[in-house]
Every structure is written in C-alpha cells, then in structure tokens.
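ingest -> validate -> predict -> emit
validate: passed (alphabet ok, no gaps, 128 aa)
predict: started
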Amino acid sequence: MEQISTSGRRKTSVARAFVTKGTGEIVINGRDYKEYFATDTLQFYVQQSLVAANLRNDYDIKINVQGGGTTGQAQAIRLAIAKALVEENPELRAAMRPDNLLTRDRRMVERKKFGRAGARRRFQFSKR
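emit:
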C-alpha cells in the first residue's frame, strides 16, 4: 500500500483523504485534527471510521477539506476515511455498515423561494 486517496461529501463540504500506513496521525488542512475541530463531537466524527474498524493507530491520514460548516466538514471526512479503509481492506465493509459509515447523506439545504422569508417561512401576515 502506497497511498489511497478518496473523497467524501456532506451538505456543501468536500473532503479528500490521503491514507498511508503509519502511526495514527490525522492532519486536516495542515493542522492537527484536535486543533482544527475544537469540540469532542466533531473529533469523534473524524475518528469514528477508524474506531469501527479497530485501526485507530495504524494509518496516517492527510485531509484537505473545503466548503460548508464544521459539522458538514467532519462528516465528509468520516465518509472519506471509511471509503479509503474499505478500499484497502474490503472485509471492513461489514464493520462499517451498521453505523452507516459508507452511506453518503444526500440531504441539502432547501433553497429560498421568492416571496418568502426563507425556504418555507412566509412573511408576517397583516390583516389590516
């Protein structure tokens, strides 16, 4: 195994993961993942695929992520890492399936419509 590159998407975030054998270092946009994502929940999303496969300290992962917010980025990273691990070892698919780690969440923000305050919200009604 030299290097596996995969991508993951969530909302408007796109993550590209480059996975190599190593010591468990995770770098996101040139920064450590604990520095990039301050909350425990977002850090959990990043590690979730590795923990499910029981490979927490076996791979070095370099990630480029752009677009969206922090939650979308973390979940895009989770998908990219899961896809890379399954590409390396197809037997891990069974470990990833119960947590839906290989399924792209296709929900997107609904666009704002004309004549409305938001996607569905109307402006305040005035009887007089």
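The first strand starts at residue 4 and ends at 10.
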